[in-house]
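Let's study a protein:

___
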Amino acid sequence: MLVQQPGMPGAVAAEGVPRIGVLPSGPRDLISDVPGVTVGHATLDDGDIQTGVTVVMPHDGDMFLRKVPAAAAVINGFGKSIGLVQLQELGVLETPLALTNTFSVGAIAASQIRAAVSCHPEIGRQWSTVNPLVFECNDGYLNDIQAMAVSAEHYAQACREAAVEFAQGSVGAGRGMSMFGFKGGIGSASRIATSTDGQRYVLGALVLANFGRMENLTVSGQPLGRRIVAQESNEPNEPNEEDERAAPEKGSIIMIIATDAPLDVRQLERVAKRSAAGLARTGSVYGHGSGDIALAFSSAWQVPHLASEPMPAVRMVHESMLDPLFDACAEAVEQAIVHALWRATTVAGREGHRREAFADAVPNWRALLANPHSSEQSS
């Protein structure tokens, strides 16, 4: 496997995005660096309708027949996801992971059920029912969420387009999302974890980012949001800008973690919890109104649906060797959040609401990030 070596912590990558941490990344710096994982989008961009669907495929086989071990960690539960109860009980995924807006959860869950039944008419009759798994964030500022525009065809399109190379930013489920007062959306990253016995594992993250107050934005440990606010203190404010900044945190983030490390369900839950470390480093306080949920799965082994098939015999990673994966999870999530912010493009949507791309709104971000006093010099 090709490995991207890190620069200095806080360095800016060649494509003009801050490079987080010290661990090397996979060749794409995407969740799809984990073998078998692909991602697809369907994006709705039509006036007041600014929304979509994103799917994460753990493998290219039959998800119902070949289930994947997984576990979730609810950091703050102000969310309307579906499928978490059975996931926590049985510890397996049996559909692709789907992300969308809050009011489209039901439509996507129905699509997942129909897709599974079309492949296996025995589901719900001779066989058990299928557990759809859909995560959401509220994109109602930019998107007319009440229109419930997302349909079964959009889910099918996202599944068809799943690939190892995929767009980030204002695409798919991220189309209408906001971050730290700017445009948010989909971000992804990967890191390589090396255990004490020299074994190398890939860990990838994908986030649906829709959270944060501007003054809390932190990048590579630097209080970038406070520097932006200080820079703008002498500039005219847009209507309601100050009111919006003073509003309580009520955004959300979904964090999907994939790894090729052979972990059991309990270990996966431990890894999922470490996503909160990466989230906190960017300035989140997991506010009262936020839905902050992480899910981790392993591509190293699968669980057969049919009891007549043998269960796999897998040698799991020893508990004392999990720290490198914890480090990789925190770093990959932090980097994925940064990618979501930097890769997003400006979007105008419902009733003229608009979110600016971060790089366009703060063109001197490099100076602000590098020099604590640059905002004073530029004012």
